[in-house]
# Entry
Amino acid sequence: MATAPFVSTGALPPRDRMQALVDAALDRFAALGDGRVADYIPALGRADPKGFGIAVVGSSGDAVTAGDCHQRFSIQSISKPFVFALIVQAIGAEAARAKLGVNATGMAFDSVIAIELGDVRATNPMVNAGAIAAASLLPGDTADAKWGFLVEGLSRFAGRTLEVDAEVYESESATNLRNRGIAALLHSYGKLGIEPEAALDIYTRQCALSVTVMDLAAMAATLANGGVNPVTRAHVVEADVARRVLAVLTVSGLYERSGDWLFDIGLPGKSGVSGGILSAAPGKGGMGAWSPPLDSAGNSVRGKAVTRFLSDALGLNLFASQPAAVDGGA
Ligand code: GLU
# Structure
């Protein structure tokens, strides 16, 4: 018997079919008017509620886009899985689990009570507490060195050099009292590798990195492709790291709506308050969508709708199966 580990296989449909589906998805959901643009970070409140873009990158490197695919927006929470990937790569899966946790909190992304109730105080790396702790644990002796490591790593996931949107960074830095409270609480539990202000500053800057839907799709496709960026072919993290990150995304990528997301869409995904959503189909590719109006848990309304449509149309749902044909059966 072959001893190679089982991995998900299968490919996306041909490029022209994917393009037709992505165009159809944009058309179908552009008129969806629900949701509210986040404004608790003042700079985000200026986003165009009609903005809408989609990108899909396959493991072959094939890419298709539709809508506002050149529009830049701040990555926000979607940075979290990629920083977690860098940490798992640097300190190993067991140390990362022990320090950051891998279970869902079932609570909001900025919950303080989740820190108090959980046995791993950092809760998990897909919500603010775990992400601030993760930023503090990045390799590097100084905050600058940690930041340099982070930008270099996330840029390799995207396949181009990412830059901070200074307006978003300054706007969030001036208003992030709640995250300051979270950082102080984590510090009181001895969960940070550096001073709380420095950890929070790295986290706030990472959330302000400016991306497009194509960047999100390439980043997701890298996690879905054993840690290799399918466009640049750069080996960003080990395959074992990529699968661990997708596991944590599956349980907690859509905050307290992760169960609803899996129930409908059946893919590891991550959303952010600027309206981005990415999802990864192991072995097949990644998708990125952006549209600023959010549901009450902070997830893009059009982004969710379009991902659901494409997950079905492209055959990506991890839980979908059909009965096997049996020889001689009825
Ligand atoms: N920078 C945002 C915050 O800390 C990220 C939230 C999100 O995208 O979920 O509030």
Summary: Residues 76-77, 109-110, 128, 172, 179, 207, 272-273, 298 surround glutamic acid (CB under 6 Å). The chain is about 45% helix and 10% strand.
